[in-house]
Predict the structure.
Amino acid sequence: MQSVGTRNKRVWGARILFLLPVSLLFCFFFLYPFIFTIITSFTSWRGIGAMKFNGIANYQKLLSDPTFRKALGNNVIWALCQGFIQVPLACLVAMILVRKPFGWRFLRTVYYLPNVISTVALAMVWVAIYNVQGPLNAILSSVFGMESRNWLGNPDTALGAVIFQTVIYIGYFMIVLLASAMNIPRSLYEAAEIDGANTLQQEFSITLPMLRGSLVTTMTLAMAYGMRHFESTFLMTGGGPAYATTTMGIDLYLKMDALRYSEASTAGVFLIIMGTVVITLLRKLFGSSDPMSEMAQ
């Protein structure tokens, strides 16, 4: 009995030893900044000097700020587009490629290629495409006779233009879903064929239900990205025109750039809360079970 107890202590000691570096990194780079952000949001602080407690004044000021409310709405639009447009597109392509049509390896590479290209480079390419004298206006003018427009300079089209250039890059989620689809047992499809099910019926009755766990994961990742979106919008429009494309990330950055650190922390808290709400709602709506994992067990 004593040797068993000693062995268990050694096992737990080894586990703690292995977990210690990760736990320290988690505390230093997530837990501490998270707590510090919450504390700072209840103070008046410009990054230097002493903090002055001001209660919920920052929250009241932020909620009454029309720019922040605009950014909040834009983030919701971003999250919905990422989760309910980009992921379904990625799923559709994955369901086609898993059937291994002609050139499917080449297409898989082509769809994933934008994910290995710098965001800055892609943003600059799209700025040129959307330019008044750019190729998009030239094509629309020659084919449909449309007048040239400043896609990124018009508040009515700027947000849609920025979202479009991001949503079409489906490669990352396509690879995740394709990998899951390739693990679905072929015997299920063979049995469905024997029962007379056509390809479309097989996709709706076998592929989509089996991909539910992966779909929930990819939608969570996509919507979380939509909530914290910053890079391409900042590079293409800087949040303009007239704050039409401003997101919470850009609003937070501008507040920090103006040394309004406590207000930036308040915006960060809102961002964390919204991300948590989105993830929770997705789990409640679609469930957290994974048919693939259950089958493997």
Observations:
- The chain has a mean pLDDT of 89.
